[in-house]
Write a structure and sequence with these properties.
It is a single chain. This protein is of the alpha+beta class and 465 residues long. It folds into three domains: 36-97; 115-178, no CATH class; 179-218 and 236-356 and 396-465, Major capsid protein gp5 fold (2-Layer Sandwich). It has helices spanning 2-24, 36-65, 71-102, 117-131, 136-154, 158-167, 181-194, 196-200, 257-261, 267-289, 334-342, 345-348, 357-363, 414-417; strands spanning 177-178, 202-206, 213-216, 239-242, 245-251, 254-256, 319-322, 352-355, 376-377, 387-388, 391-395, 409-412, 418-423, 427-431, 438-451, 457-461. The strands form three sheets. Strands 1, 2, 5, 6, 13, 14 and 15 form a seven-stranded mixed sheet that branches. The chain has a seven-stranded mixed sheet with strand order 7-16-12-8-11-10-9. The longest helix has 32 residues, at 71-102. It starts with a helix and ends with a strand.
Length: 465
């Protein structure tokens, strides 16, 4: 009898839900299917749009030569720039989705892949504490799991040693608890996808903010000698110290108390998404122009770049090539060749360009003076970026715009040229006091950065000379 009543109630609830759904119409979100065909379609549209772009730009050039107005053509080119940017972003997104789906166990929760039993236990205890930190039993459980991890590391548990080094610095709920490792790794991976400099620079995980690297500027000296000839002592290598400056990268996402009480609210996913967006934005700006004051020293935040060549320029200072225009991009494409060949051949093998979206739209219009071919080419193969003069080009929105004295374009081997140092571990403090009814999560990690080898990167400066 009770079973019959229960089934009747369930049927009634389902009928009511169906009626509401019918009134609301189709409200499901439609997404691009992550299939090879979708990527192929994006590539085809990029190729077709760029072909039209070249025709329009050729017409603009002819109109300029004839002294005619180019306003309509400029507007059309601007719209096509937006279309190509959008298509490139779509292509990149679909490629990432396909890569994700091709991984073993892709249908399982990604953050849980590769967890050890200890890591899984810590994550579960942490998630339980986040929902209700005033519950003494939950906090006690979290502390107990931490203690087990620390003890295992002290007893020689190699796979837990790095994690315990982070956990051992925690001071409980007042000072925050360490984020579970799978959450920390997911934040790090997604931040890399968003921050261009993380994709191309050298990234190291360090245990102390006092981390330094010794860099051999000129290498050991060399000589030829005969079989019986005397050997003179070669000069000592010229070593320079690279010490990244550190700061605390932090995010403060906020949720209502009611949402945390909801069993269907995914705390882990929400913390990851909120932290990634905030931290990536701050890091991206610091890696480009940070002044080193409680933050990384950015690529453009060091000593003022000069025109002096590598052989006689001070270590730690970048070289620039002038645009030839006091407040505009170069009129001659030869300037870009000057930048490429100012870089030593050993760095050109892994070199790339870095600039912002506005400069990207400008360099699409450049053509080689001898072949009349366009110097920018879209990435028309899956997984391949767009290129300029045959070198990959990365978009970094924090690169400067065009105005007198700015450096809007960089070229070089960024892995050789820039160092990012991540202090091991991320921590989170839960605050439900400062904003009644809301809970703030203070997520933070220490990050450092500095130029590593200033011979490996060249800059374009907007200047007459």
């Amino acid at each position: 009898m009770q079973r019959k009543i229960l089934m009747t109630l369930m049927a009634a609830h389902f009928a009511a839900f169906s009626a509401k759904l019918a009134l609301a119409g189709d409200v499901t979100e439609k997404r691009d299917e992550p299939s090879i065909k979708s990527v192929a379609d994006a590539l085809e549209r990029i190729e077709r749009t760029f072909a039209e772009y070249k025709q329009t730009n050729d017409a603009r050039i002819e109109a300029l030569k004839a002294g005619k107005s180019t306003a309509d053509l400029d507007a059309k080119l601007a719209k096509m720039d937006e279309v190509m940017d959008s298509l490139s972003e779509q292509k990149s997104r679909l490629e990432k989705m396909e890569t994700k789906l091709s991984r073993p166990g892709a249908l399982m929760a990604e953050a849980k892949q590769g967890e050890t039993p200890e890591q899984a236990e810590y994550r579960q205890a942490w998630a339980s504490w986040v929902r209700n930190p005033r519950d003494a039993e939950r906090e006690q459980r979290l502390r107990a799991v931490q203690a087990t991890m620390v003890q295992k590391a002290r007893n020689g548990g190699s796979d837990m040693e790095r994690r315990a080094a982070q956990v051992i610095t925690s001071t409980g709920s007042a000072g925050g608890f360490a984020l579970p490792e799978v959450i920390e790794q997911t934040i790090a991976r997604l931040t890399r996808d968003i921050t261009p400099m993380r994709q191309v620079a050298t990234v190291r995980t360090v245990g102390s903010p006092d981390y330094k690297e010794l860099f051999d500027i000129n290498g050991a000296a060399f000589e030829w000698v005969g079989e019986n000839g005397s050997r003179s002592q070669t000069n000592t290598s010229d070593l320079a110290e690279v010490a990244p400056t550190f700061g605390m990268a932090s995010a403060k996402p906020q949720a209502t108390e009611e949402s945390l009480d909801d069993l269907f609210f995914d705390v882990e996913a929400w913390v990851i998404q909120s932290a990634v967006e905030a931290i990536a934005q701050g890091e991206g700006a610091a890696f480009i122009s940070g002044d080193g004051n409680n933050k990384p020293t950015g690529m453009l935040g060091g000593p003022t770049p000069v025109t002096t060549v590598d052989a006689s320029r001070a270590f730690g200072t970048l070289q620039y090539i002038a645009s030839g225009q006091a407040s505009a991009m170069p009129t001659s494409p030869d300037v870009f060749f000057d930048i490429v060949y100012a870089l030593r051949s050993r760095y050109r093998a892994n070199a790339a360009w870095m600039t912002n979206k506005l400069i990207l739209s400008a360099i699409r219009k450049y053509k080689e003076s001898t072949t009349n071919a366009y110097m920018w080419q879209p990435g028309l193969a899956a997984g391949q970026p767009s290129t300029f003069l045959g070198f990959p080009i990365y978009e970094a929105e924090d690169m400067p715009g065009v105005s007198a004295g700015t450096f809007p374009l960089a070229f070089g081997d960024f892995r050789e040229g820039y160092l990012i140092a991540d202090r091991v571990g991320m921590r989170m403090t839960r605050d439900e006091i400062t904003s009644p009814g809301f809970v703030k999560f203070y997520v933070r990690k220490r990050v450092g950065g500095k130029l590593r080898n200033t011979q490996a990167i060249k800059l374009l400066k907007i200047a007459a000379a």
